[in-house]
Amino acid sequence: MLHERRIAPTAIFLEEPGVSPATLKRYPDYRKDRLHAPITWDRARRGYRFAEDAAAAKHYSLPGLWFNASEIHALLAMQHLLSTLQPTLL
Q1: Facing residues of 41 across strands?
Q2: Which residue in 57, 69, 79, 84 has its CB near the most CB atoms, within 10 A?
Q3: What's the rounded Cα separation, in Å, for the pair 90 and 85?
């Protein structure tokens, strides 16, 4: 969202990705500590934006989610199993 817009108000995060208000309050620490995202809160515009001092902000993206071959096989097997179950079984 921040790549598409220069600033993303809180309401956008609550609506589009379906983030809860509690998660949104916890998000800044997680974003900085674990994802090393150069995102800051802009008080004047009341929204999140990329930090101006971060030259790499336009190239920043969230880290990927990677699976090894056995994990992919297990996920595909589970997907197939769940798709063949009758709705009343669960």
Answers
A1: 48
A2: 57
A3: 8
Phi (first) and psi of residue 50, to 5 degrees: -70, 140
Q: Strands across the sheet with 47-50, in order?
A: 8-9, 47-50, 39-42
- pLDDT tens-digit map of 21-71: 887 777 767 777 777 777 778 888 888 887 775 555 566 666 677 888 999
Q: What is the pTM of this model?
A: 0.49
CA–CA–CA angle 18, 20, 22 (5° rounding): 160
The DSSP secondary structure of 16-68, one letter per residue, reads SS---HHHHHHHHHHHHHTS---EEEETTTTEEEE-TT-GGGGG--PPP----
Instruction: Map residue 8 onto helix, strand or coil.
Output: strand
